[in-house]
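User: Sequence recovery, please. Input:
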């Protein structure tokens, strides 16, 4: 009998690709949705790549509530806990932090009670980064972001606290279930649907001409297909149990991404602005015109990078170049009519 893998948050960008690749590799998949009625959209998205007939099932469970998680984990062999709250900063940081932290604990409690063999939790490279935004150099999984740093944006703090809570839970657990965490960078690549663009929304805005310029921000670009491959390798590799794995990609400036899009998309690239926005202009806009920019201003000019040597060595993981991920992402958005 094929092993059954639970993927949390099946309507999400990364989770959808997890479902696709698991089905491709012969697993049975169960995925969670937050409310009844969302199953059709997930099935339709997955069906654009692979036939899920008879091998994809659903469970209703929300990160903010206990109900549904025991049923979701029943009979499950392995878990990819990908779901995490996203969105703009709130006046109350706990609005983002609590669902991420408490949701991870709900999944782990249900998984350990069900005797699941291994849980792979999606964290973020921002949970293994220096507190100082001025830092340069290369860091690895041994570093933990300081969650008490007052300059941290809520999303970064939520990912750090959620992963910390997961490891703390496992340190007091004595049973067969294992935990592994994967820490991605900026996730681009093709989309299955335009219903939930997630991190690729920035590529859509650039291609559609809605960004008059690009801030001086560097991203470690990882293709969603390579990130999913890292998750599945972390789920199955014997040496991955109890480990953190950075799954970042090539470091590129947003200006480089803009030039890649402009040069590589033909007619569709003409609307992409490659003009670099001065740091002071971004800060002024964040202060007076667009409060949503406040979360990116601390990262202006930041050059810190992460090492993926551990994932390459232990998992045999090899990500594709950032240029390929960016262009495949843009072409997919164009094909889906998102730009």
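Assistant: Recovered sequence (339 residues):
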């Amino acid at each position: 009998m094929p092993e059954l893998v639970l993927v949390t948050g099946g309507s999400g960008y990364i989770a959808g690709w997890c479902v696709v690749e698991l089905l491709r590799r012969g697993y049975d998949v169960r995925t969670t949705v937050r409310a009844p009625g969302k199953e059709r959209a997930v099935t339709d998205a997955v069906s654009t790549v692979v036939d899920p007939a008879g091998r994809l099932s659903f469970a209703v469970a929300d990160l903010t509530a206990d109900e549904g998680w025991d049923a979701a984990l029943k009979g499950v062999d392995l878990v990819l806990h990908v779901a995490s709250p996203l969105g703009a900063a709130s006046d109350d940081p706990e609005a983002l932090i609590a669902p991420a932290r408490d949701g991870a604990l709900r999944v782990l409690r249900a998984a350990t009670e069900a005797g699941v063999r291994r849980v792979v939790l999606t964290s973020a490279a921002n949970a293994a980064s220096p507190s100082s935004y001025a830092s340069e150099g290369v860091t690895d999984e041994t570093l933990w972001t300081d969650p008490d740093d007052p300059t941290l944006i809520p999303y970064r703090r939520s990912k750090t606290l959620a992963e910390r809570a997961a490891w703390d839970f496992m340190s007091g657990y004595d049973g067969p279930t294992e935990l592994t965490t994967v820490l991605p960078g900026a996730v681009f690549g093709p989309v299955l649907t335009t219903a939930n663009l997630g991190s690729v929304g920035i590529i859509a805005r650039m291609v559609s001409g809605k960004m008059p310029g690009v801030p001086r921000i560097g991203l470690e670009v990882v293709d969603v297909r390579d990130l999913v491959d890292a998750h599945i390798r972390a789920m199955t590799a014997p040496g991955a149990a109890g480990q953190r794995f950075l799954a970042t990609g090539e470091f590129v400036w947003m200006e480089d991404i803009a030039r890649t899009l402009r040069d590589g998309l033909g007619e569709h690239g003409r609307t992409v602005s490659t003009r670099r926005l001065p740091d002071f202009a971004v800060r002024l806009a964040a202060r007076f015109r667009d409060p949503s920019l406040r979360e990116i201003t601390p990262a202006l000019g930041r050059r810190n990078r992460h090492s993926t040597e551990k994932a390459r060595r232990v998992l045999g993981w090899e990500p594709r170049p950032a240029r390929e991920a960016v262009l495949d992402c843009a072409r997919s958005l164009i094909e889906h009519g998102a730009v």
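The chain has a mean pLDDT of 92.
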